[in-house]
Amino acid sequence: MSITLNRPRGKKNLLGGINKIYLIPYVRYSRSQITVVDEILTAFPATQVFDYHSVNTNYTENVDLEGGSVAWTQSLTIEVPKTKITSTIYEFVKQDYRAIYIDNLSNIRILGLFNGMDCSITNESATDKSGFNGYKVTLTGKESSQAPYIVTLAGLSITIAIKEARGCKDLNAGLKTVYLFAYTKYTRSQIVLSGQELTSFPTTTILDWYSTSANYSESTEVEGGDVKWNQNFTIDLPRMESDSEVYKLMNKDFRAIFIDNLGNIRILGLYNGLQAKVSSTPSSDKASANGYSVSFSGLENNQAYFLDSLAGVGFEILERFNYVFEDGCNFVFENGNNYIFE
Fold first, then answer.
1. Most buried by CB count within 10 Å: which residue of 125, 165, 279, 308?
2. Are 123 and 258 in contact (CB under 8 A)?
3. pTM more than 0.85
4. Looking at residue 175, what is its pLDDT?
5. Which of residues 77 and 80 earns the better pLDDT score?
6. SS3 state at 89
7. Which residue(s) pair with 120 in the sheet?
8. Distance between CA atoms of 36 and 18, rounded to whole angstroms?
9. pLDDT band at residue 65, thresholds of 50, 70 and 90?
10. What value does the mean pLDDT take over residues 63-80?
11. If you average pLDDT over every residue of the chain, what do you get?
């Protein structure tokens, strides 16, 4: 359409959103194997694609100038619910992809057509049950033109190889329990793994750490050609007092274990440990929090490993006998009983 002509009125059906996502491991093809005519992909090698379920998907592309040439930055984010030990999402970062999406207006477009798309992953659990619990996968790439359209998948000999089972509706986010213990360096033979599960660890006593709020996230980065996982979690501790020794957390490294509201048990800082940073947050009014925020961060070669159980792997929980009241006060009673008052 000539830019000098009057723009025709668009249809009233302007539904946004993406209906389906298909991912394709990137294979480099010659220009003669790929044909684009008037922004429509008309020829592509026979390919099988993977139908990927996402609870939320968004796509953007932006155009800018690089070295005098037009470059289109394509970005696709998919949210995959429910972190679980059987998930293989972590393997996505090992290769590049092409992606095809079908939006709610039935437009079919292909991303990363010539150059492919890099993958990065964030795994997170929000502070409350209504938040998101799972993986966010972001694919980004640059092309010399916008994402071409496809008339039909079958017309290009693109077939759907696998349809992923829809995820469970139980997507409660949030961390239920956090355990901390000092970092001790062990040999590789002392830490036993099976896939993404930690199955054996030297006998260790861990401390159940009371927190009014806790959240966790991990994300990928490429360092020296290798994929690394940034692991971060934060706990909020109520009530600042002169005799508090929270600041001592900064004097050593830690490992941490959390149990989320889906029952997943995961360990952080398994090989390299976690460093702590402490900040105090005096409240501006009576309704606000008054206490410490402790942030732990570490870098590992793998996502946080799962555990089937604490005792079965080698962890013992240190019993503490504290009364904890709603206002954050706590003290130890002579009889050693432990209660939490509502």
1. 125
2. no
3. no
4. 83
5. 77
6. helix
7. 138
8. 23
9. confident
10. 89
11. 82
Q: Mind giving me the DSSP string for 186-237?
A: --GGGSEEETTEEEE---EEEEE---SEEEEEEEEEEETTEEEEEEEEEEEE
Q: Is 113:86 a contact under the CB 8 Å cutoff?
A: no
Task: State CA 166 to chain mean position distance.
Answer: 18
Identify which of 266, 296, 262 has the alpha carbon closest to the alpha carbon of residue 278.
296
Which sign does the torsion angle of CA 165, 169, 174, 178 carry?
negative
Q: Return the structure tokens found at 333.
A: 């009673």
Amino acid identity of 173? A
| Residue 245: strand, helix, or coil | coil
Q: Which two tokens stand for residue 341?
A: 């008052």
For residue 84, what is the DSSP state? -
Where are the domains positioned within the chain?
18-163, 175-332
Q: What percentage of residues in the chain have a pLDDT greater than 90?
A: 45
Task: Return the exposure string of 253-267: e unless at least 16 CB atoms fall within 10 Å of the residue's CB, then b.
Answer: bbbbbbbbbbebbbb
* DSSP-assigned letter for residue 257: E
Whose tokens are 């993404």? That residue is 196
Query: Among 270, 265, 277, 269, which Cα is nearest to 307's?
Result: 265
